[in-house]
Amino acid sequence: MNEADPQKYHVITFGCQMNSHDSERISGMLEQRGMVPAADQDDADVVVFNTCTIREKPDQKLYTQLDQAKGSKRRRGGNQVIAVGGCLVEAQRDNLLAQFPWVDVAFGPGRIRDLGNFLELADGEGASVGQTPGDGEGFYGIADERSFASELPTRRDRPHQAWVQISMGCNMKCSYCIVPAVRGREVSRPFAEIVTEVERLAADGAREVTLLGQNVNSYGNHLPRDGSPRTFAELLRAVDAIDGIDRIRYTSPHPAHMREDVIAAMAECSSVMPQLHLPLQAGSNRVLKAMRRTYTRERFVDLAAKIRASIPDIAFSTDIIVGFPGETEAEFLETVEVCREVQFDGAFTFIYSSRTGTEAAALTADFIPPAEQQRRLEHLVDVVRAIATERHQRHVGSVQPVLVEGAARKPANRLRGRSPHNVKVIFEGDAPDGAIVPVRIVHATSETLLGRQLTDAGELVAAPASSRSVVTFDTIST
Ligand code: 5AD
Ligand code: SF4
Question: In which band, very low, low, confident or very high, does the pLDDT at 137 lie, cut at 50, 70 and 90?
């Protein structure tokens, strides 16, 4: 290998924002070792699949792609390293390498750093990974062998927006959820380290940060009580105080850990956006108990009301699972009722998917038939959409400060950005990426606002934009 011909990598990401952020670290690490992005999978010396296993669908998708990867490796005469990382790897650690023998290395979500070490093993030269090393090696573990991926450099696609990992793992025991089994017990990143990272991001041009964790608002519970700041509320205030950071978001909090100090910090910190993803999961107390969510319907509704009293214009989004084992029609309808009561601005809705190793996977006798699960999902989606459409009408006629993300995919001559409430805004304008500009909202649907950029003097701006790629958001389990 010579310097003019660097090795190339290609990362394929499944799942939540934590995984997308982990992929930024994987890319950053590979670039630090001298690699450059490949044009596509066939062009890559190293292909990394960063996997998700929260539901069955992503598992199936990965298996199809791994079968295809066998072909891409063959087309390159075997001269391609195939690495598989992420949650599925930890869940399938006993059979993944045997089932897909063309996979060279597997690494769990806590072992991202070891991918770099493995590639170095290829010939002791960092980026020189032209030869397929070994017969397959695995780096797993959900205990002390984990390290924060945040110790690695990142490669960010969006210079003005950044994810910041504040904790790893989850100590909750939600009966449907595989996350604790694959990401391990919760560990909080040191407070000062997070603040330093955000300061560095601000200096580097980031205007918006999203704090990430499986259960962000239990952040700090296990940090030493030595008098220095360590709670999630204190972290929000510290990040709010950093110059250059205009927007702070976080995901996902657990409703049971949503303390008064966090609500007060949200209300008082001008950079913390009036938006909260608050996962409901179900509206029936029996189902919530079977899910081990540790709150009741009433507590959730009260919490939402309390938050709204402090931050009147807040936009709530949520996650909901339908068809949990044993869920009756009446219990499902309670979920629908809570949606009407809380008035979510948006919801991610999921059909319950049994995950081997979780507590609920044993409830086979009570599994709901797929057709019935599907029917409930469709009904819920209709309700959630109608509520979101209605909620978003309050923005029509208002002027929203929009953080510009780039050109809209459709229509081609519009820009795309996000409102403070984290709603996608498509608008006519001429602002550069990363600017926060006033946009007059003229139309609202369940997921999108349409508008026209104003000048600082309040006049309309209209100009075509250049085309760029589109970024989508997903949620983190909680
Ligand atoms: N089946 C369906 N949905 C699930 N989620 C987590 N585990 C499962 C499962 N086994 C959902 C939860 C979580 C979101 C990220 O995924 O709603 O908040
Ligand atoms: Fe933890 Fe969230 Fe999974 Fe519950 S749903 S176990 S809080 S990751």
Answer: confident
